[in-house]
From TrEMBL:
It comes from Olea europaea subsp. europaea. It catalyses: L-tyrosyl-[protein] + ATP = O-phospho-L-tyrosyl-[protein] + ADP + H(+); L-seryl-[protein] + ATP = O-phospho-L-seryl-[protein] + ADP + H(+); L-threonyl-[protein] + ATP = O-phospho-L-threonyl-[protein] + ADP + H(+). This is mitogen-activated protein kinase kinase. Residues 328-339 have a biased composition (Polar residues). It is an enzyme of class 2 (transferase). The lineage of its organism: Eukaryota, Viridiplantae, Streptophyta, Embryophyta, Tracheophyta.
C-alpha cells in the first residue's frame, strides 16, 4: 500500500505560509495527515478488564482428577480433586439433582457473585462447572477439615478462633452476603491454623433446588424467628440470624456439647420447642464475664438487640487477647457505654 502523499506546494500557498510563519509555530508536515473516519454504527467498545482470578485457576473440568470423597450433606457431596497441570488440590462440591433452566440460571448467578469473594477467613470459590446435568463448584481446599465436635474450653484459644470467624462474617455482611448456615461443621481450619467459613450462600442455592416442604440441613443453629415465622412479626433479618447461629456455635465449642437441653440431632418438634419456647442458652457462671457477655450479645431473642459482626469484633472478649494490628474495625463502632454482665451470684454448698 502506497503512503498518502501530502498535497503539492504552489507559489501562492508558499507565500501565505511564509507570511504566517512569524505569528505561529511551524507544524511538522508528517503530523498533518487526516485521521481515518469511523461510522458511529461501527464503533468498537473498549475491552473489559481482565479476570481477577489467578492464571493457574483451573478452567477446564477435564484437568481435574477426583482423589477421594471428603464430605456430604443436604443436596451435595464434596470431593478432594487434583488439578493435574499444577499439582494443586481443590475441593469440588457437586450439587445433586436435576434443575430446570430458570433455577439453573439463578444458581449460576449466585455462584458468580460468590466467586468475587476474597478474604483469608472465607473459603474461596474458584470456578463453576455444569457437568452431566450436575452443577459443580470448585472451592479452595482446606487441609485440616472442619471444627465439628471440637471442644475448646480455653478462652484465649476460643477468642482467637471467634475473632477469625467474625472477620470473615463481617466481610460477607459488608458485601450484603448472608451465610444462612453458620454452624461448627462449616468452620474449616488449615495447617496454618487459619479458620475459614465454608458453604456461604450454598444454603440459599440449595433452597432453590428443593421443594418448599424440605429443609436444608438441621434447624439446630437457626434463630427462633427463622424457625417460627410468627415471632418478630414475621420479619427475618438474615444478618441477625447469622449472629444467633454464631453464638450457638461458639458456646458449643466452649461447652463441648450442643448448648440446648435437646441434642442437635433431635427431631424437628423437640428442637423447635427448645429454641423458640425456652430462654436462650447462657455461658456457665464459671466462664469469664467477657465471654458470658459476648454470648449474651449474640443470643438475644429480639434480633434487633443482637450485636452486628462489626460491633462484636470490638467486644472485650475479642480485644483482650487480640494484638493491636489484628483488628481493622474502628472502636467508634461499639457503644462506649456498654457494660458487661454482672458477676454471677455466689453459690453455696448444701452441706
Amino acid at each position: 500500500m502506497k503512503p498518502i502523499q501530502p498535497p503539492p506546494v504552489t507559489a501562492s500557498s508558499s507565500a501565505a505560509a511564509s507570511s504566517s510563519s512569524s505569528s505561529r509555530p511551524r507544524r511538522r508536515s508528517d503530523l498533518s495527515l487526516p485521521l481515518p473516519q469511523r461510522a458511529p454504527a461501527l464503533a468498537v467498545p473498549l475491552p473489559l478488564p481482565p479476570n481477577s482470578a489467578p492464571a493457574s485457576t483451573p478452567t477446564s473440568f477435564a484437568e481435574l482428577e477426583r482423589v477421594n470423597r471428603i464430605g456430604s450433606g443436604s443436596g451435595g457431596t464434596v470431593y478432594k480433586v487434583l488439578h493435574r497441570p499444577t499439582g494443586k488440590f481443590y475441593a469440588l462440591k457437586v450439587i445433586h439433582g436435576t434443575h430446570d433452566e430458570s433455577v439453573r440460571h439463578q444458581i449460576c448467578r449466585e455462584i458468580e457473585i460468590l466467586r468475587g469473594v476474597d478474604n483469608q477467613n472465607v473459603v474461596r470459590c474458584h470456578n463453576l462447572y455444569d457437568h452431566n446435568g450436575e452443577i459443580q463448584v470448585l472451592l479452595e481446599y482446606v487441609d485440616k477439615g472442619s471444627l465439628e465436635n471440637i471442644h475448646i474450653p480455653d478462652e484465649r484459644s476460643l477468642s482467637d478462633l471467634t475473632g477469625q470467624i467474625l472477620s470473615g462474617l463481617y466481610y460477607l455482611h459488608k458485601r450484603k452476603i448472608v451465610h444462612r448456615d453458620i454452624k461448627p461443621s462449616n468452620f474449616l481450619i488449615n495447617s496454618s491454623r487459619t479458620v475459614k467459613i465454608a458453604d456461604f450462600g450454598v444454603s440459599r442455592i440449595l433452597d432453590q433446588t428443593m421443594d418448599a416442604n424440605s429443609s436444608v440441613g438441621t434447624i439446630a443453629y437457626m434463630s427462633p424467628e427463622r424457625i417460627n415465622t410468627d415471632l418478630n412479626h414475621g420479619k427475618y433479618n438474615g444478618y441477625a440470624g447469622d449472629i444467633w447461629s454464631l453464638g450457638v456455635s461458639i458456646l458449643e465449642f466452649y461447652l463441648g456439647r450442643f448448648p440446648f437441653a435437646v441434642g442437635r440431632g433431635g427431631d424437628w418438634a423437640s428442637l423447635m420447642c427448645a429454641i423458640c419456647m425456652s430462654d436462650p442458652p447462657e455461658a456457665p457462671a464459671t466462664a469469664s464475664r467477657e465471654f458470658r457477655d459476648f454470648i449474651s450479645c449474640c443470643l438475644q431473642r429480639d434480633p434487633s438487640k443482637r450485636w452486628t459482626s462489626a460491633k462484636l469484633l470490638r467486644h472485650p472478649f475479642i480485644l483482650q487477647y487480640a494484638s493491636p494490628s489484628s483488628n481493622s474495625i474502628t472502636s467508634n463502632q461499639v457503644p462506649q457505654s456498654h457494660q458487661l454482665l454482672p458477676p454471677p451470684p455466689p453459690r453455696f454448698s448444701s452441706s
